[in-house]
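Render Class I SAM-dependent methyltransferase in 3D.
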Amino acid sequence: MSEAARLMDRMYRRQRYIYDASRKFYLLGRDRMIAELAPPTGGSVLEIGCGTGRNLLRIAHTYPTVRCFGLDVSGEMLHTAGRAVARAGLGHRIRFARGDATAFDPAAMFGEAEFDRIVISYALSMIPPWRAVLAEAAGHLAPAGALHVVDFGDQNRLPGPARWALNHWLAAFDVTPRHDLPQMLPELARQEGRHVRVRQLFGGYAVHGVIERDRRTI
């Protein structure tokens, strides 16, 4: 087991039981991102850093024909995710694997080499080599696929006291907003020959970026 896996298991061994109930108040923009995924009928969706499986369950319910896959480094979180999926009766549509988001082989893990949609929701702010995660994800997109990322933004339009309180609170959980994420996404899109859309949400509290094939060529 890697050091990253041990750290995540230690952090979430108890938190996983209250994770979804507590995070819904501040992991903003996730449901908007899911509503805009629009995967093709019968398509595939991979979430990197899937945690408790909350997003994949919502995706499976929103898009009843898609096949869903989740990758996470924490065995504790995947245990919780597996139980949630079993309770929902969606084990035939949602599969999980444990692995390192900076280097993984989805063909070996899931029998899928590429995906129509890849989602990374509030995971980059917890992964030190986050740029490597983005590059790895982009490499597993189908030709007409799209990578959706939502995470903490630079809070540039929030009041100063609110920014201070938010960042100090996040630091207590080893969460580091990636303030250069809006600049990194266009750079990666250029490297991949794709189009990019980046939006600041809620006064810069969150950022939602999409790397996709240029719609004018579809």
